[in-house]
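Example protein was shown:

_____
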Amino acid sequence: MSQLSLSTLAQNLKIPPDFLRLEYITDTVVLSELEHWKHGATSMLEDILQIVRAKERESLPVDIRGDVLFAALPFSSQPIPNKDGSLQAPYGNEPWISSDSQLIANDILSSNLLSPSPDLITQILAHKLKPIFKFSPHPHLHVETGRKVFSHVGGPLAVHDYYEDQKWKEYPGVEKIILWCVSGIQENAYETMWHLLIPPIMTLLDDYEARNKLHGVVIVQQMLLSVQKDLLRRTGVDGLLRQSLKTSLSYLQSPETPQLLKRAIEASVCLTLLTTSTSQGTKPSPNRFNELSSLLGEGIISGIWIYAEDKPDAVNATFEALPSLLNALSIGSIRFMKPLIPQLTHTLIPRPLVESDIKMQLSAIRVLDTLLDVCKPRIEPWKETILNAIGRCWVGLIDEESSSTESGAVLATCLVRIRVTHWITVPQNQRDTSEVKRGLQMLCVKLAKICPSAIQNEFPRFLQANKALFEGLLPRQVNIVPA
């Protein structure tokens, strides 16, 4: 097959936009056509893979390589690094992808011919992405320079036009193409590609659909790993990113809310740490402190917790993101202990007739653990509040285990009677409960080190109340004598 046929195959792989609104389509004919296209896409990807493998030792023109990448990337799985070094795929199972098409697309992208290079990334940005994003220019960006503008480009109706003509939404999976470009750009190449890169990123980030905002946040997180802080400042894009990430925290009603909140908070922390300076000692600089304080106080406490009481997944997402924010604030976190500790301890305390949210309890424990580290000088006045919640949570877990044991005994008796001999796995909830118990024990150990008075005052009260119940909670290495 020739290069011409390779380019033709790539063009024929344009994904029908109807896949993005599949949940709203009821016409069986349209659904059947989409399913037929999906099966055909696998065959076309296989043909592309064979050609790419045949050309492995040769070379392909940069425009042909760009065509192949533009076609194959929307079918791929693109894991990105988490803070702990693990890899996470930021995208779910898109409806146009089958398991076979994803494997084939990944094989195509693993070819040395398609490795990221400045000329290939520029080809995709300039000749693939720019033409489809130019119809909806961002009202706060100069499209030729990638710099912030202080008046709406296009006049008073610029924002209306921005949302009106969104041709880029006719290209499902375009976010993966942008992410691939960002992941492959070297630090010293951002300057030359800035005007091509920032417009599509900001378009995703400022879209009104939570799904696209999430894609934009994922791409921003990746960009912040290598972009120069001076470039962000000089172009004014740091301020645009900060405002857009702040706006993302107001999206509380969509399926993407938990991931969007968590990633937007993490990206905001990274942006602040990158674009603000440190000061001597343990305190952050005034600019850094003000931005991080605004994120925690206005963004999370006042902006999310007040309105998300009936949205546990949203609250838990903030808990998962809080440790990095508290570590960045360091001793400055003391300012927020009054709202933080009651919120966290309330999460630990079981409520009558309401099943405990083990996942949220684990997240709250991790936040409390971080708070104990960064606010050591001010923990003493809060130790009783924290220990009260720890004790109540411990009792609730023991009660749940007792109920599970009784149920398990009944089940075991029934299984013996019917002579069932296969292995029974430990339920996930039971394993999570054990993790919560270990977390509570570690909090007690840390509290004993930070507040030695707890060893003489509060810990003995637990043993006086019920030694058998609380002996497993308190640190064994501490010699506690009940009063």
Q: What stands out?
A: The mean pLDDT is 88. The chain is about 65% helix and 0% strand.
